[in-house]
DNA sequence: AACCATCTCAACCGCACCATG
DNA sequence: TCATGGTGCGGTTGAGATGGT
């Protein structure tokens, strides 16, 4: 597919007009990818506009930059967002909001674009299913008290099942294996270099009490340690004695596999109680 | 098989900021 | 100080993929 489109701009000179008319937009071809990869391998990254010209690419510098950073870079991680990464995204988004590039700095190999897409497609979808705004207190409470502890639970379960985490070792676009790479230390943006992920367990009446059942604080020192160490003790979700009520899931989204299998029947019940 | 709805994600756009002359 | 060009970021779009009927 050669979706060649011209920019509709006011020509300022015949040369510029010709140059602008030659610019390509839309999906990149394999040939263009190879040209860009080879040029950067030889000359390195530089000024993107001049790079685009010198490489002979009929693309804007912006387009080249985006293609390289989001797709062609050898250290771009591919594959599903892992529970660990989901947890980090939720935590960091709660702290910084839509600062995608800043969040991406804490997820090596993940691009701001990918995280942004994840948020918009997955997280906002869950908010929609709960019939609340993604920025509402309700949804934030669900995230903090259900979703994030659930992720911690899943991470711990996965880690207890095998000594080596399966969370890392994704392949990149080129099909190569990206070296296992736990989250790297943040370059001195946090004052202490220590980030805390704090989860209090849900306030429910599951066991006849409305008080917080317990609380865990996870010390994420530099994000660099194995998750087995990050999650040192049971979170104490308080579901142990939980009896699942009879629920009719017909005609609701809750009986379906939500792709990531994020919400369980217990979640549904708890959310219904709290919202 | 065909059609439609929904989802995913690569790519683009507009804007703000910064460096340079 | 101002104009210009380059870069980065967040928001948005739309083509292709996928699933349901």
UniProtKB/TrEMBL annotation:
> According to its UniProt record, where is this protein located?
Nucleus
Q: Where is the composition biased (Polar residues)?
A: 186-210
GO-annotated cellular components: nucleus
**Which stretches does the entry tag as region Disordered?**
183-210
PANTHER family assigned: MYB TRANSCRIPTION FACTOR-RELATED (PTHR45675:SF1), MYB TRANSCRIPTION FACTOR-RELATED-RELATED (PTHR45675)
Q: Which UniProt keywords apply?
A: DNA-binding, Nucleus, Repeat, Transcription, Transcription regulation
Protein name from the UniProt record: Transcription factor MYB108
Query: Per its UniProt record, what SMART domains does this chain match?
Result: SANT (SM00717)
Annotated Myb-like domain ranges read 20-72, 73-123
Any idea where the HTH myb-type domain is?
A: 20-72, 73-127
Q: Which organism is it from?
A: Iris pallida
Question: What Pfam families does the record point to?
Answer: Myb_DNA-binding
A molecular function (GO) held by this record is: DNA-binding transcription factor activity
Please give the chief subcellular localization of this protein.
nucleus
Q: Which domain of life is it from?
A: Eukaryota
């Amino acid at each position: 597919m050669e979706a060649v489109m011209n920019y509709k701009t006011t020509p300022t000179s015949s040369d510029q007009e010709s140059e602008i008319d030659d610019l390509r937009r839309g999906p990149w071809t394999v040939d263009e990818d190879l040209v860009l990869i080879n040029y950067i391998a030889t000359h390195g990254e530089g000024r993107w506009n001049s790079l685009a010209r010198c490489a002979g690419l009929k693309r804007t510098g912006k387009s080249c930059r985006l293609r390289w950073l989001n797709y062609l870079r050898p250290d771009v991680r591919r594959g599903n967002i892992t529970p660990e990464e989901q947890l980090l995204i939720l935590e960091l988004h709660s702290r910084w909001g839509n600062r995608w590039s800043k969040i991406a700095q804490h997820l090596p190999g993940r691009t701001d674009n990918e995280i942004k897409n994840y948020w918009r497609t997955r997280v906002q979808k869950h908010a929609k299913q709960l019939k609340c705004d993604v920025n509402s207190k309700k949804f934030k409470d669900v995230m903090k008290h259900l979703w994030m502890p659930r992720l911690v639970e899943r991470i711990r379960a996965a880690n207890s099942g095998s000594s080596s985490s399966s969370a890392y070792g994704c392949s990149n676009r080129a099909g190569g294996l990206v070296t296992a790479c736990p989250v790297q230390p943040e370059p001195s943006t946090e004052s202490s270099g220590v980030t805390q992920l704090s989860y209090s367990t849900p306030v429910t009446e599951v066991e006849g009490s409305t008080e917080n059942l317990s609380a865990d604080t996870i010390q994420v020192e530099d994000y660099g340690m194995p998750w087995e160490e990050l999650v040192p003790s049971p979170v104490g979700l308080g579901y142990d004695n939980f009896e699942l009520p009879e629920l009719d899931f017909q005609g609701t989204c809750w009986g379906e596999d939500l792709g990531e299998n994020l919400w369980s029947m217990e979640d549904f019940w708890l959310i219904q109680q709290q919202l």
